[in-house]
Amino acid sequence: MLLYKQKKHQGPKGNRLLISINVLGSAGPIRFVVNEEQHVADVIDTALKSYAREGRLPVLGSDLNDFLLYCPSAGSDALSPWETIGSQGARNFMLCKKPRSEKMEDDGRSNEATTRKGTGNWKAWINKSLNLKISSH
């Protein structure tokens, strides 16, 4: 007589997806399997842990609140941390650090020297990088 092992409960029901997350400045994408019902915040957390475990560069840190996840096929807006990863119908994503906010000096004026240049828009960064490479040839 054969005994069958019961499958362990694997969280909420739903399809599993193999996703790829590109990190700006990193050599290649991170790939892992997620449940389509997982929240974007959980996916960012998993991506950061996987990235660190693999010893990738540049070092990103581990605070998921410092990052935004973009779906290149859905436009230039970052995904909400509370939406599900499967809601976009995509499997390729881009992980970017959030732009630093302007710091205020004691008298209330913004300190322009401490702000990051640019808008933090990853598409603008890629276009600028491509234009520099093309113009240097």
Automatic annotation (TrEMBL):
UniProt xrefs under Pfam families: DUF7054
Chain ranges of the DUF7054 domain: 14-96
Region feature Disordered, mapped onto this chain: 99-118
Amino acid composition bias (Basic and acidic residues), ranges on this chain: 99-110
InterPro entries: At4g22758-like, DUF7054
Name of the protein this chain belongs to: Uncharacterized protein At4g22758-like
Source organism of the structure: Durio zibethinus (Durian)
Source organism phylogeny: Eukaryota, Viridiplantae, Streptophyta, Embryophyta, Tracheophyta
